[in-house]
Design a protein that fits this description.
The protein is α+β, with helices and mostly antiparallel strands. The longest helix has 14 residues. The model has no long low-confidence stretch (mean pLDDT 87).
């Protein structure tokens, strides 16, 4: 576990913090932390907000979605934010 954690930490350290991938994030974005207003999801509960990689919010959301909903989420997310293929 420790070896895996170190590998992950090294990969994260290698990422450059750019305005396109780093900034203020919700850090707890899952289906209990957004509401819909006029068919648009609006985040709520900002108690864990901070600076981080934008993809962290994507990963956090994934942990709470079934696989078929993940595909819909990625499709919708990609319409607003371009994702790299990898």
């Amino acid at each position: 576990m420790e070896e895996s954690a170190l590998k992950i930490a090294n990969v994260i350290k290698s990422y450059k913090r750019l305005p396109s991938n780093w900034g203020i994030i919700h850090s707890d974005f899952h289906e209990s932390n957004f509401v819909f207003y006029e068919d648009i999801p609006r985040p709520i509960d900002f108690s864990n907000c901070g600076y981080g990689f934008y993809l962290f919010d994507l990963a956090e959301t994934f942990m709470h979605l079934l696989s078929e909903k993940r595909k819909v989420f990625i499709s919708s997310f990609s319409k607003v934010n371009q994702l790299q293929e990898n």
